[in-house]
Amino acid sequence: MPYCPYDRTPLQPGFVFCPQCGRSVSQAQPAAAPPSVAMFEGSVLWEHAHYPSAEDALVRGILRLKARPGAPVHVGGGHLVMVLDVSGSMNTSDKYPLMRQALRLMLENLHESLCLTVVIFSSRSEILCEALPGVQARRMADRLIERMDRSPLLFGSTHISPGLELAHGAMTRFARRHPGALQRLYALTDGQLHDAHVACTLTQRFMALGVEFNSYGFGRDFALHSMREIMGACMGGAVKHLRHLADIRETFVWLVQTAASVVAPQASLGLSLHPEALLGDVFCHRPVLTRWTPSEYPGMRYPVGSLEANRAYEWAFEIRLPEDTVPGAFEVGRMAVDFELQGCANHQSWALEVPLVDADEPGPVDEYVTRVFASLEELRDQSPEANLAALDARIDIALLEGRDASYIENMRSVAEHLRDGGHLDELDDEMTRGAYATCCTCASVIQGNLPDELRDALNSGRP
Amino acid sequence: MGCGVTAQRARVEEDRMRRRMDAFWRPGLYDVLCKLKGKELGGWRVESLLAAGGQGVVMRVRRQALVGVMKMPLVGYDRPVSFGSRQVRRLRQGLEREARMLALHSGTLLPGLIELATGENPLLEGRSARLQGSERFLVMEAVEGLALDAACVSCSPDGHRMARWAGELLGFVHRLRSQQHFYTDFKPNNIIVGPDGGLSLVDAGGIHVLGQDNMVEVTPGFGQVPEVLEAGVLEALSLMALGRAFYAALSGRMLYEGVAIDASALSNADDAWRGWVLGLSCGELKTVEEARAALPM
Fold it and tell me: At B87, is the pLDDT very low, low, confident or very high (cuts 50, 70, 90)?
């Protein structure tokens, strides 16, 4: 049995961090062989079945990517940081108890390769645990929950910035000990923030650390716009809406599962183009709507965070073709994913082959691609028309993806209001938040992807 | 697109243009267009931006002592991927056509054509070689004055003066009709009232040539694209747009689809004049002769 090189603690196979001292022991393990097969299955969807040749047509496409079944998972470990709101608005018969249950589930099911930091915040902040390895988390779950229950911070006012400061400190220390390790920060809030402007000053520091930063809006009242501003251009950047409070349990377990299923840590998406082609904006459609403009990313390399095994990714792009093209498959460029796995650089690319024919007009439309672009348009056009078209497209896509019915209904109500000539400002905040926050993965979908024992644990309320 | 402006008002016009572009186009496009200021385009130096919209950017330009108004194609220069060479060529053809119309109808209410210059468009830098070096710059006589709606606000014209303006515009429609041409894009911004009270029309792109053109230039709120392209239909459309231009100038309201004509919006006008504008706006007066006969003098 291998031992921790620092304190000689026996290590179970697959351990990346010492359960005793928390230090990385991955160097002690032989580096895994680089994957011999392509890690991802990718396909390019074009908006039209074909395009006219000999013309600088605008082509819009989507690269859809998914890890191949059995793709090797990143074993280099990772760090999850939860910044949890325990302010007065959480003091209800359901919110705090559900969050408490979810945290317990998270602690008890933390994967061995992961470490967990938990920060709670209200008027002040406190670290419940810092970079706690998976094995210890299980052992300490009761103690940590009890510590949270007895915290003098419970149910004060809502100031997130001290909590984010503590999270940043923990992540900085972790990055020093484990350079290049995956780090994900999740902030959960259920009310309006009193210090959003202060918290925004931390954005650059999180970006410099290269961490992924997402947040959850818990229940009806959450600070959608403030959280978006606080996350800024950090990787991730989604404000996900936990509209059904009980879903927090599945969601927290899912965070652990997905963080332990990373196949491409800190990946980047790259584009190389035909010299006479002109690139427009590049977007991430799934998992989180993001826009990358040509002026912000002249090198055509986009940070896409860590890619997981069970998630589908979609990146949309628009290219103006060169004028002198002939009928046939025209390779306008290549799209590539680059990442480092077990110390080995990985690169996989896909040709962007545009079908060209001798015709005046483009061929039949792929409705899905058109809808995706309509939904993305609101990232660069805030006109009421673009807003409504985007909402309609998002409704269609949500139906196609089988999203939560109440989320779709919410979007429909907002769309109806806009169609009648109304303005977003006239709607109550709850409705606009519900329509414009990111929809969480459905609890039923999560359950369908969990191991049996974990599913049973969730359904029985306790593992 | 109104381009009548004095040099002194250039800054005011630019501020207005920025606001309009931010609201109706895209924030950022105006800043890109501003790069044209001080540049030489087709041998003319750009002094200020006057307007943008539809298909053209309009600028005040100078060549030595000669001052003119230049129009060049407007595309999404701020997002180069958004326009293709087909679109640019179509806009260039539109300018060539407009130049022909100005030449053909010189001596009317339209400004005189100075030249249709060709040259480099600096905003197309980086685009295909085929697009470069062949931009069209339509240069016209500068028209001084205020758009019709602004003129109505600033000088509150009486019925007599309004009738004189209407008579001039009907004369223009009549003259065009004799050549099977129809001006279908009347709107306050296209009708300029000069300091001497005379009228000018500033957009020759609104002329439809029967039998040659298969598109009709109309602005929402002033007319609708007709289903058939016949002389009678086009004449009626032209007169309706003219009536609605007066209605908009006097009331500040535009008759978009579904918006009913409201006689009370013209309460400041005398009864005879109001009746004429309403009759024209709702399409009751379908020929120049009918419109002239009904015009209160």
Answer: very high
The predicted-structure confidence for A201-213, as pLDDT tens digits, reads as follows 999 999 999 899 9
Cβ–Cβ gap B128/A276 under 8 Å? yes
Contacts of B124 in chain A (CB under 8 A): none
Which residues on A lie below 8 Å from B82 (Cβ)?
A: 58, 280
Q: Does A124 touch chain B (CB under 8 A)?
A: no
Among A278, A283, A321, A377, which would you mutate to test the B interface (most chain B Cβ atoms within 10 Å of its Cβ)?
A278
Size of interface A-B (CB pairs under 8 A): 35
By C-alpha distance, the chain B residue nearest A318 is B81
Which of A45-59, A344-358, B216-230 has the lowest average pLDDT? B216-230
**Cα–Cα distance measured from residue A130 to residue A135, given in angstroms and rounded to the nearest whole number:** 14
Of A278, A323, A381, the CB nearest to B130: A323
For the stretch A52-68, what's the b/e string if a residue is b when 16 or more beta carbons lie within 10 angstroms of its beta carbon? Answer: bbebbbbbbbbbbbbbe
For residue A280, which residues of chain B lie inside 8 Å, CB to CB?
Answer: 79-82
Amino acid at A116: L
Choosing among B75, B81, B88, B132, which should be mutated to test the A contact, i.e. which has the most A CBs within 10 A? B81
Give A294's contacts in chain B (Cβ within 8 Å): 81
Average pLDDT over residues B230-259: 91
Q: Which residue of A has its CA nearest to B24?
A: A383
Nearest to B86 among A55, A279, A381 (CB): A55
Q: Is some CB atom of chain B closer than 8 A to the CB atom of A45?
A: no
Compute how many other C-beta atoms are within 10 angstroms of the C-beta atom of residue B158.
11
- A338 touching chain B per CB within 8 A: no
Question: How far apart (Å, rounded) are the C-alpha atoms in residues A251 and B37?
Answer: 56
Q: What was the ipTM of the complex prediction?
A: 0.73
- pLDDT at position A152: 94
**Is the per-residue pLDDT at A458 higher than 80?**
no
Give me the percent of chain A exceeding a pLDDT of 90: 59
Which of B26, B84, B128 is opposite residue A58, by nearest beta carbon?
A: B84
3-state secondary structure chain A: CCECCCCCCECCCCCCECCCCCCECHHHCCCCCCCCCCCEEEEEEECECCEECCCCCEEEEEEEEEECCCCCCCCCCEEEEEEEECCHHHCCCCHHHHHHHHHHHHHHCCCCCEEEEEEEECCCEEEEEEEEEHHHHHHHHHHHHHHHHCCCCCCCCCCCHHHHHHHHHHHHHHHHHCCCCEEEEEEEECCCCCCHHHHHHHHHHHHHHCCEEEEEEECCCCCHHHHHHHHCCCEEEEEEEECCCCHHHHHHHHHHHHHCCEEEEEEEEEEEECCCCEEEEEEEEECCCEEECCCCCCCCEEEEEEEECCCEEEEEEEEECCCCCCCEEEEEEEEEEEEEECCEEEEEEEEEEEEEECCCCCCCECHHHHHHHHHHHCCCCCCHHHHHHHHHHHHHHHHHHCCCHHHHHHHHHHHHHHHCCCCHHHCCHHHHHHHHCEECCCHHHHHHCCCHHHHHHHHHCCC
Q: Write the residue in B26, B85, B130 that is nearest to A381 by C-beta.
A: B26
In angstroms, rounded to a whole number, what is the distance separating the alpha carbons of residues A241 and A190?
10
B128 contacts in chain A (CB < 8 Å):
56, 276, 322-323
CB contacts, 8 Å: B86 with chain A: 55-56
pLDDT for A255-277, tens place per residue?
998 898 889 888 999 999 999 99
**Considering CB atoms only, which of A279, A323, A381 is closest to B128?**
A323
Give me the percent of chain B exceeding a pLDDT of 90: 59
Which of A365-379, A438-452, B64-78 is predicted least confidently? A438-452
